[in-house]
Amino acid sequence: MPEIRGVAVKDERIAEKSAARAEWRRLYDMIGKLLFDHGLEPSPANFELCHRYLSGRDGELNAMVDRAISKDGALSDAVAAAISTKLEPGLSTDELSRMAQEAQGYLEQMATILTRSGEEARDYGEALAHEAEGLETDGSPALTVQKLVDLTRSMIDKAQVAEEDLRRTEQQMSAMRKDLAAAHHKANSDPLTGLPNRRALDQHLRGAFEKARRADSALALAICDIDHFKLFNDTHGHQIGDEVIKFVGSSLGRVANGDVFVARYGGEEFVMVFERGAAANAMATLDKIRAAIAARELKVTHTGQSLGRLSFSGGLAAINGHDSPGSLLKRADAALYRAKQDGRNRISVAE
Q1: Which residues are within 8 A (CB) of 32 and not within 5 positions of it... i.e. 6 or more apart?
Q2: Is residue 200 scored above 70 in pLDDT?
Q3: What pLDDT score does 4 carry?
Q4: Burial class (CB in 10 A: 0-12, 13-18, 19+), 322
Q5: CA–CA gap between residue 60 and residue 245 (Å, rounded)
Q6: Which of 146, 222, 223, 248 is least enclosed by beta carbons within 10 angstroms?
Q7: Helix or strand or coil: residue 307?
Q8: Taking a C-beta distance cutoff of 8 angstroms, is the pair 46, 40 a contact?
Q9: 268 given a catalytic annotation
């Protein structure tokens, strides 16, 4: 029997790998067609742009590409380069985050060294002050003794100046650490909603998954997708579409706490990770948010124009003994697809 189960699991993995390779091939063909249709050079930058566009995970990029195609009828190399530059100014968020973390580590080491040097200089100054007091009360009129006293006092003054310099340096380094922390936060945040981005989600999910495995505790993951968002976006425009994404992100983000992590996955999709006790109430939490959004009529703030009602669908998966972070996401995504198939505006639980 163990051999039979092992064969079954192996067959499943082979089937999953085969399906994944077929999906890669389809995406590769689509990228090639997009490049050819628009006469784009098959450069690494254009390949990345087309991959991000066809993956549909970056609503800002898709909106910019769609506007360019609508305006000019095609996507030129110059426009593609401009879009890539605008979306990725300078260092990537991964590189920026790595450099920020390394720099912060170096600064903390320097702060420790400088603090220790300051303490040593202060102790040395106190010792010299003690010796100077002894020399002054000795009553010896020798010139060398007076010079020694003067030198000692001079060293005390220098030690005090050094201590002040070190204090100012530590304050500057503290400010730099705050700047680096802000840069790290920016690298892990979605600029539209302010929620953690996909990179932050990947990091958090790996950590949460390992903690759940070690502690044998509950973990659940939900993927939420705004219903009919493309139609809504096309009807009311990208600016209103962005406001809708922010509204849904804010509604989901309100439940974020130590046991609930909420991130923008890309486009109109969000992911929620429920840990420990929150996992047991994940379905109730999600459905409460879904019902509240669906019951609300949206309006344009400055005009009062009605935008109608909005809803989202969700797929929820709880960790099982065979899961990995990737398979948990995949199962939640399959449940989301079923929720869409069943009529939208609902939460479906993975089998």
Answers
A1: 42
A2: yes
A3: 47
A4: exposed
A5: 11
A6: 146
A7: strand
A8: yes
A9: yes
- pLDDT at position 82 is 75
Distance of CA 320 to the CA centre of its chain: 26
* Contact (Cβ atoms closer than 8 angstroms) between residue 125 and residue 159: yes
Q: How many CB atoms are closer than 10 A to CB 222?
A: 25
Max distance between CA atoms of the chain, in angstroms, equals: 102
> What are the tens digits of pLDDT across the range 161-185?
767 776 776 777 777 677 777 777 8
Rounded to an integer, the average pLDDT of 15-41 is 78
Tell me which DSSP letter residue 344 carries.
S
Please report where in the chains the tokens 């994404």 appear, as a residue.
245
Give the whole-angstrom CA distance, residue 134 versus residue 139. Answer: 10
What share of the chain in percent tops pLDDT 90? Answer: 32
CA distance 286 to 313: 10
Nearest to 223 by CA among 338, 107, 137: 338
Sorted by sequence, the CB contacts under 8 Å of residue 313 that are 6+ apart come out as 224, 225, 227, 336, 339, 340, 344, 345, 346, 347, 348
pLDDT digits (tens, 9 = 90+) for 203-232: 999 999 999 999 999 999 999 999 998 888
Question: 155 is written with which tokens?
Answer: 């060293």
Of 70 and 136, the one with more pLDDT: 70
Contacts of range 22-31, beta carbons closer than 8 Å, 24 or more positions apart: 27/51, 27/54, 27/55, 30/54
187, 314, 306, 65: CA torsion to nearest 10:
50
Tokens representing 126 are 């106190």
- Given the residues 102, 131, 268, 275, the one annotated as active site: 268
Instruction: Write the CB contacts of 334 (distance below 8 Å, at least 6 apart in sequence).
Output: 315, 350
Asked if residue 1 has pLDDT above 50, the reply is: no
Q: Please, what sign has the CA dihedral across residues 321, 324, 327, 332?
A: positive
- Residue appearing with tokens 């399959």: 334
DSSP three-state, residue 324: coil
pLDDT value for 130: 63
Q: What share of the chain is helix, strand, coil (3-state, %, to 5)?
A: 70, 10, 20
Q: Facing residues of 62 across strands?
A: none
Q: pTM surpassing 0.70?
A: no
Q: Residue 137: CA atoms inside 13 Å, Cβ hemisphere, count?
A: 6
Which residues face 223 on adjacent strands?
271, 315
